[in-house]
User: What shape does this take?
Amino acid sequence: MRKNQVDVITLGCSKNLVDSEQLIRQFLANGYVVHHNSGAVNGEIVVLNTCGFIGDAQEESINMILKMVEAKKTGRIGQVYVMGCLTERFMDELKAEIPEVDGYYGKFNWKNLLTDLGKAYHNDPLGGNRSITTPAHYAYMKISEGCNRSCSYCAIPIITGKHKSRPMEDLVTEAQSLVASGVKEIQLIAQDLTFYGLDIYKKNSLAELLQRLSDVQGLEWLRLHYAYPADFPREILSVMRERENICNYLDIALQHISDPMLRAMRRRVTKAETYDLLRYMREEVPGIHLRTTLMTGHPGETEQDFEELLQFVRDIRFDRMGAFVYSHEMGTYAHETYADDIPLEVKQERMDRLMSTQEEIAAELNVAKIGRTFKTLIDRNEEEYFVGRTEYDSPEVDQEVLISKQDVPNLQVGNFYPVEITSADTFDLYGQLAQ
Assistant: This one.
């Protein structure tokens, strides 16, 4: 066990990561040595930031808590603290089931951890409110917290509460600070980007926010994650088209397409409206790359519903797509209203069919990129390749561009280069520096 060392472990999404980065900054300001997701956990203090969205994520978080408690018992680490979405949702149950944890905190009261350790909370510590854990050239920026939607299956509003937008001035200031520290790409994140401003400005203000952020000098790429189809603010598309540093990329979770399922899921959008919105997006922003997430096995999903979903994937040919099986979550509308009537093996088989179809589409779309040249941001220097991304690829979740070191011996991580695509497979592109 290393004295004065804190190990922070983050599970779940990039929104959790931002919370961890704020906590890490506080520990650094209080004189600790801090490691994040290092794998070699042996600190005086371990803080686990958990996910509680669906069953699989909850299980992963609980298993990690038990692993850290066991390490504490053997003397490898000193104290274990747990925070985040799982504890926000199941605080009492966790305290009763795993009392060996030294302290539990929710998603929003993690500052109490510092108080309980006898440490101060520093406003603007070390000149900023976060310690970036991503590569220095990109960062996530959370523009709001919470969600006002009422999707049947989703526990996020239970965990996060109502939507709360951050003031535009604060976001511009943070973007300027990030860029001044060397960040070239900002990933805008929220439970629902498309609700931004309705609470504090009484109107949808995402388009104005994008304009103001894209004006930040030195910001090369601005990327949008987690839009919602109902009441989508179409005015953001013209901003995206007109502003060169806003990536032609949108992550919009659609979940399903059949009208019976959309009604059961309480999505407040129809099949026809969804097709129309996606067509409009591609007309307004030529070349836009769309990422979506789909669900299989929601209560009541028939084979016909699923076949409609499968045809939807074939019709739209999403550039990026993920899928997950329905999880019957306590406290949600679906849990209280519907029986979980689709067997797990059926949910899984449907998801596998969806992803198999998407893999074929992704491979075809990648082959179509061969011979084209893309502005590429280098993320990593690996043994055989420099690994980068185009504006159409988000870190961690999307494909990458691999450039052989045999062809180019020296590229700088964090810099942009024109890369011609020479070959492709389902999940990656291969390229060389354009002549």
Remarks:
- The CA atoms of residues 249 and 289 lie 5 Å apart.
